[in-house]
Amino acid sequence: MGQRVPRREDAILVQGQGRYTDDLSVERQLFAAFVRSPHAHGDLKAVDTAEARAMKGVVAIYTAADLEGQGYAAIMAPNDLPARDGTAMRKPRRAALAEGRVRFVGDPVAVVVARTADQARNAAEAVRLDIDILPAVIEAEAALKPEAPQLYDDVAGNLILDFHSGDAGKVTAAFAGAAHVARLRIVNNRVVVNPIEPRAAIASFDGKSKRYTLHAPSQGAFGMRNSLAAAMGVKPAAMRLVTGHVGGSFGMKASVFPEYVVLLHAARMLKRPVRWTDQRSESFVSDHHGRDMVFEAELALDARGRFLATRFTGVANMGAYVTPAGPLMATLNIGKNSVGMYRTPLVEVKTRCAVTNTAPIGAYRGAGRPEGNYLMERLIDKAARGMGIDRASLRRRNLVPPARLPWATPVGTVYDSGDFPALFERALEASDWKGYAGRLKTSRKAGLLRGRGIGCYLEVTAPPTNEMGGIHFEPDGSVTIVTGTLDYGQGHWTPFSQLLTSQLGIPFDKIKLVQGDSDRLVAGGGTGGSKSLMASGSAIIEASDLVIEKGKLVAGHVLEADTADIAFAAGRFSVVGTDRAIGIMELAARLRAGTALAPGLPQSLDVDHVFKSAPSAYPNGCHVAEVEIDPETGHVAIARYVMVNDFGTVVNPMIVEGQLHGGVVQGIGQALFERTVYDDSGQLMSGSYMDYALPRAADVPFFTFVSQGVPTLNNRVGAKGCGEAGCAGSLPSVMNAVVDALAPHGVTHLDMPATPQAVWRAIRAGADQIGRGAGPT
Length: 777
Hints:
Layout lengths: L9 H5 L15 E7 L5 E7 L1 H4 L4 E6 H4 L33 E2 L5 E7 L2 H10 L1 E6 L6 H4 L15 E7 L2 H9 L3 E9 L2 E2 L7 E7 L4 E5 L5 H12 L6 E4 L15 H13 L3 E4 L2 H7 L2 E2 L2 E9 L5 E11 L8 H4 L2 H7 L8 E8 L14 H19 L3 H6 L10 E2 L5 E2 L4 H11 L5 H10 L3 E10 L8 E7 L5 E5 L9 H12 L6 E4 L17 H27 L7 E4 L2 E4 L5 E3 H9 L14 E5 L8 E10 L6 E11 L6 H21 L30 E4 L17 H18 L13 H16 L6
Helix pairs in contact: 11-12, 12-20, 16-17, 19-20
């Protein structure tokens, strides 16, 4: 525990021995290619497949008409948030293939199945779609206007949810009595998820057992199996989901996509396996996108700079269909996470969620948590500048002190642990806050603008749900951990092994991990919401306790002692007060060899345990970024980046640090590079890496990483989750630094992404204002 043990899977992956879905090949397999709508909105009059059916190698073509009457369910969001007036959230129905109307470019309309992938793609291009094109609406604010095109007959005004939380009366009174109010209109830009591995699947159907099997990347085999079964209209036992290595997901691969239903249908009808791998150009238009919301954010303060209330009034873009996470991010998660580590007594959130003719919005690293922290941290900087208070001082005077923990927030969360003031001071010290003046002077001599930004954050992780912790002692002398969470890049095998070794003394190199086969699982909440170690770690600890209980019973028999006299430590069962002992691995081996036992004793040490759900945890930290900007080109360079984080108990510091590096870089990508652009007709203009910029190694500095953990009391490990925290800290710290650098030019706010073009224009616009006598505010 606590050691920087190298990831065990890396030796496999760097040698090219990983087994991703597209690496698999099965006998008699066929290949699928999807026909997608080239238009963002239109009535689908006909699908002409005649020419495609006659092409070489084509085995079958299916449209929505072929799926009718098969018992498949619509793909719909399972959650049901209440609207402001108490009515239920509207959840538009999504068929696996478009029925009657297409609603975004990339909407699947048909599938072609052929003997080779090239044959399938060629035939897909020959399918002719007769679509009466309708006007499209791209932005959520525009979609809510009375004159906007309507996507659904049963969703009036394109509004699926009018959400409200908080005490409006008290918040209004707090703002009325405030000495100062900071206001900002903040755009949280849409991003394309861009995992290194595109979506892929191999579907098969066993006619004898009437059972489906889908090999596909996911974020948890158990939950995905259940969702797939529901979509196919069968019981969970009739579905198996198998996930091998996964090349990234960031939330996107957690959902059931319509393509999976279509592939399973084709496999059943053709009595042969059907495989499909998405093309990158298709991924851009058909994967779920992330973020995309606009908020009017407000912070009320008294004369001393103490926070009185926050109010967030926003519009969130759901895309053409509503995903499971879509409505949660801009509603509940904004409220919970905007509080941060501050003593804000009142929070009000008002969000209207709208459908548009764009790709659906789904979970993306943090799923509302970085957004909430970003809104708050930008407001604090705006308030500090408006009140003439140092921004570090303003934060200091509003932090929750450790003596006040547990701290109940106005949004129903309770912080159980942490030392926010100490963490904050350590971040300033690690960033050499006091030495900034010298660096600023150096930058100015070089003709560059320099700025620094603080990004404090506190996240409310997803609560750990029921999670399996299986421990199996195998015939070959190894031990297998069986878990329902799933590693799609995090490196679960190593920290889970570290936990098991610390609990049972099992040799580290003898431990295996099974995680991606739903047939091996009895429960599983999957990986998402930064809860994996909290859930699987707690399950492993509790399962280890059960192994020890069973082991004491068997060891008492083997060592000829009363069970009450058996102790366990460092992997050995011993008789108290004697030198008689037996190791856990030897004891398991004796059981496998058939050692005669008294009636009623366990026949093995194997355990299949289910850890029950636990409360959320609250990872927190402070990130400090410094940027340099070339005023002639608008180019922003990250000059320094320091982060201090509280993740509670850290099992493997190296893996945690790596997770933060990845999250920070993704945050930098959204802040400075990534811009998703649709034209007025709904065509994606940034649909390839020629048009959509991702950060590269040369775009980020070496990071300074400091861990200052206070273990949580909310789970057996004491861990708080770390997978998404990098985004939560980097969005505000980088953008606060950019605005700080531009402040001498009269710039008080800039929306993401701060591309060279956007920065250059802001500098010119700010210089114009100053020239007309309007100085910085």
